[in-house]
Amino acid sequence: MSDRVWYASYGSNMQLARFMCYIAGGQAMGSATLHGGCSDSTPPLAIGNIAIDRELYFARQSRSWSHGGVAFLSDLCGSGRPTLGRMYLITEHQLADIIRQECQIDGALPVDFRSAIREGSQIVREHAWYGKLICLGVHGGSPIFTFTTADEDPARLNLPSIPYLRTIAGGLREAYGYGTEASAGYLAGKAGIRGVWSPGELMERL
Known about the structure:
8 strands; two-stranded antiparallel sheet; six-stranded mixed beta sheet; 6 helices; globular; alpha+beta
């Protein structure tokens, strides 16, 4: 089996410049976190779009994004509310490095990708925000992975910061050609934002 894998992003990493902070190191606009990057800083070999059959929601308080909520995926499939994603063809080692950075782990993070393929998912770090690896299928002969929390808790829903949402909107523009109105319409219906800002109110902020 090739060590090439697709990483399917659905939050701020949909914006290429933001994602490359995890690959090559750097600090995204609007974020307070400086990323060290991967040991292999090679850019992705290919980029594509994906619809993920899980619902997007915003939760917890991120110090990187002004203590606002950040993006996660629901455990439930088939909700009828697929999440728009952007995927990058990288190596297994790079994906493990990205998860390590997301989980704020020093040192190597062992990830059993083959187990995740067999079982459909794997907990790579207990109670970490992005410690659950999920296999979404195969594209072009390479498996597709994403990650989210294993500790889904509706009580932790939280409104995201505007810089965070603008970064996601940037990714939606790059991947899907969405303008501000389309991005606001998509994001305003997600848990954590829904019922707080209407699409029109969110559009004014984006």
